Amino acid sequence: MFKFSRGIIEMGVFHFCLIMYLINYILSIIVSPGSIPDTEEWSLNDFQENNNINMENILLEKKKSGERRHCKWCCKYKPDRTHHCRVCKSCILKMDHHCPWIYNCVGYNNHKYFMLSLIYCSITTVFVSITMFTSVRNAIKNGETPFNEMFLLLFGETLNSFLSLIVTCFLFFHIWLLINAMTTIEFCEKQTNYQNQSYSKYYNKGFYKNFKDVFGESPFLWFLPIGTVL
């Protein structure tokens, strides 16, 4: 009875985490990361000079000349933390990085889904490694385990443990970035750009508010595939 109940519980936990991972993974693919609005204040050609001066006083990130950053491909002025992705051929709001695994950029609108997909993927792989270890141990103790079965168990446990280690390390890295209110691009640039380090300090609102910026206002909805509402 105990083994049956344990198996049912493990199966339920595994499928819940797997479904949550797949939902968030799909959402991170299909949800647009966010682009510069097609409004007059961001248009490089139609923007009026007096409004341009006002925006320069608001924006943190500027060119070395002090002028507003603009994209020569999109012909638009760039908001802070916006970068042009040559793969997506668009300027991405709060661009973190272009992820080949989702063939999409991670940006303002889909950052939560990307983080949740990492969280649930890490939980799923670690859970499989832990629960599968019992079968591997029993197979080793049992000297009559067929070679094919032993090989598949050891191969599956080794492969899954390796994947869980990689995904978990990647998750911890992005959690660290989130805690420090940094994007991957800003992390890569901070060693060579002192000005970029000062920007990161400005964006850092503290542990709790940094999490709210990505996962939303309500902590009860943080780990559900529901869009961020700020």
Total DSSP E strands: 6
Give the mean pLDDT. 85
**Tally of helical runs:** 7
The end-to-end span amounts to: 48 Å
**In one word, what is the shape?**
elongated
Helix-strand pattern, N to C?
HHEEEEEEHHHHH
Domain module tally: 2
Helix content: 55-70%
Largest sheet: 2 strands, antiparallel
Radius of gyration: 23 Å
- Structural class per helix/strand content? mainly alpha
Q: Uncertain spans, ≥5 residues at pLDDT below 50?
A: 47-53
What is the strand content? 5-15%
Which strand order spans the largest sheet, edge to edge or round the barrel? 1-2
Membrane topology: Multi-pass membrane protein
Catalytic activity: L-cysteinyl-[protein] + hexadecanoyl-CoA = S-hexadecanoyl-L-cysteinyl-[protein] + CoA
EC number: 2.3.1.225
Keywords: Acyltransferase, Membrane, Transferase, Transmembrane, Transmembrane helix
State the main characteristics.
mainly alpha, 230 residues, elongated, two-stranded antiparallel sheet, two-stranded antiparallel ribbon, 56% helix, 7 helices, Palmitoyltransferase
